[in-house]
Design brief:
The protein has 246 residues and is of the alpha/beta class. It has three helices and eleven strands.
């Protein structure tokens, strides 16, 4: 295991050190004292495990392609931006635009996500990205979502807290969201409807919940004891009439 100290390092210097270690074959890298450094893990291809102790800055794991990235703390905005492959596990909460335009891999967050989680996610053939939130999500969850899977578990919320914010699924035209519990209709974008779960849906939910519990603990049975709402778009081209010739 390689241990790097991020204390006082400018983000470019820290990222250069991480890239050098991966390029020389290091498979298990721990970075301590992370404090807002941006772009960690961006564009890196490989199978190494990277553990960050602290709070990484914006755009962590953008365009990442294969790493296992564990964060022992919270993260800032836009983690997993246009991520291709790999896995992110956050033992805290995250900021806005988690998984922006994400096209592969998986993100697990123990706590909450901010606004516009999963905006413009997409999928291609068997490459299906996923975001799993243990807590709640802010407004515009799954906005313009074109593919992939979002699971929101709503664990440990106060009685006054709601599992999703307003405008959930606005512009959604692909993919699926599984929300544990019920979602008030006024919170949904006009492109979204709630439908019954199939056996395949239950299999998907079970798999993501099992992985979540594996990372963060909790009771698999208790989480699954509460029914999930399935949200899908009812129009694959909600804005097609705005473009001439379409």
């Amino acid at each position: 295991m390689i241990v790097l100290n991020a204390k006082g390092l400018y983000y470019r210097e820290l990222n250069s050190k991480i890239r050098e270690e991966i390029a020389t074959g290091s498979q298990d890298i721990v970075v301590k004292n992370v404090n807002g450094q941006r772009y960690i893990g961006d564009g890196i291809t490989g199978k190494a495990r990277l553990t960050l102790k602290g709070t990484p800055g914006n755009d962590m794991a953008a365009f990442m392609n294969g790493l296992e990235l564990f964060v022992e703390g919270n993260t800032q905005d836009s983690i997993g931006n246009t991520m291709n492959n790999g896995r992110i596990v956050v033992h805290g909460s995250s900021g806005d635009t988690v998984g922006y335009a994400m096209r592969g891999g998986e993100i697990y967050i123990r706590g909450n996500g901010g606004y516009r989680v999963g905006i413009h996610m997409k999928e291609y053939q068997e490459t299906i990205p996923a975001i799993v939130l243990g807590g709640k999500a802010g407004d515009f969850l799954g906005e313009y979502m074109a593919g992939g899977v979002i699971v929101v578990l709503g664990l440990d919320l106060e009685e006054s807290e709601e599992i999703v914010g307003s405008y959930c699924g606005t512009g959604m035209h692909g993919g699926v969201m599984y929300i544990r519990g019920e979602v008030d209709g006024y919170k949904l974008g006009k492109e979204v409807k709630v439908v019954a779960l199939t056996e395949k849906d239950h299999e998907q939910i079970n798999r993501y919940v099992k992985d979540y519990v594996g990372y963060f603990g909790g009771s698999y049975e208790d989480i699954l004891a509460k029914p999930f709402s399935k949200l899908i778009p009812y129009n694959k081209r909600p804005y097609g009439n705005l473009y001439c010739g379409w």
